[in-house]
Amino acid sequence: MMKKKTKVILIASIVIILLLIIGLFIGSMQKDKKKTKEAMDIIIKDSEKFEKTIEVFNEKRDSVYTEIFVETYYDTIKEKHEQWNNILKDYEKTIDELEKNSKNLKKYCHGMYYSKPEVNQKCNDFASLYEEVNNTFIRDIEAYNKVIKEYNEYIKENNGSPINTYHTKKKYIDYNNDKTYSGKE
Questions:
Q1: Which residues have a Cβ under 8 Å from the Cβ of 78 and sit 6 or more positions away?
Q2: Given pLDDT bands bounded at 50, 70 and 90, which one contains residue 13?
Q3: Helices 117-157 and 74-101, interaxial angle, to 10°?
Q4: What is the pTM (predicted TM-score) of this model?
Q5: Are 52 and 94 in contact (CB under 8 A)?
Q6: How sure is the predictor about 2, in pLDDT bands with cuts at 50, 70 and 90?
Q7: pLDDT at site 176
Q8: Of 43, 87, 90, 157, which residue is the least packed, with the fewest Cβ within 10 Å?
Q9: Are the CB atoms for 140 and 64 separated by under 8 Å?
């Protein structure tokens, strides 16, 4: 009789343990599914903010080219230098805003694959645009500084005082690690 009771207790214990394991597994899957859905919702929402920041960036870039690069003459550089630096500071603020608006996209997109193709497309678009916009900004600053350096060389030959180039801490990036720097060329 004792053996039968022990067997029943043992079988019941095994069944209870299996049910607990299955319950924990299902609970874990549901929790993971919920987190994934939340991440996809964040990606969709933040992609819209990111895209709006890209639009602002493009407008600022057009302004930089219109205000600085189109009408650059050595006889007006010195008087426009401060105005141009303010335009470039404003331009750089869009990159700072881009950084702010892309934190969640970096967190949830980098190296991840989702079940919704729309979300994966937004992540792919983010990765390529983020790299390209950052590198385009750096390239524009380098082009501006080249103009200022050439001007300074010209001024030195004519005994004038040189002006400062624009400084930024931003660097070229290869965000998607494809060994190319989109926007740099």
A1: 160, 163
A2: confident
A3: 160
A4: 0.81
A5: no
A6: low
A7: 77
A8: 157
A9: yes
Distance separating alpha carbons of residues 138 and 91, to the nearest angstrom: 11
Q: What is the DSSP secondary structure assignment for residue 161, as one 8-state letter?
A: -
Token pair for residue 178?
């494809």
Query: CB atoms < 10 A from the CB of 68, how many?
Result: 21
The owner of tokens 């005994």 is: 159
Q: What residue type is 8 in one-letter code?
A: V
What six digits make up the tokens of 84?
């141009």
Q: What share of the chain in percent tops pLDDT 70?
A: 99
Residue 19 CB: number of other CB atoms within 10 A? 10
Mean pLDDT of 117-131: 89
Over the stretch 74-87, which tens digit does the pLDDT of each residue have? Answer: 888 888 999 999 99
Nearest CA among 66, 74, 113, 92 for reference residue 170? 92
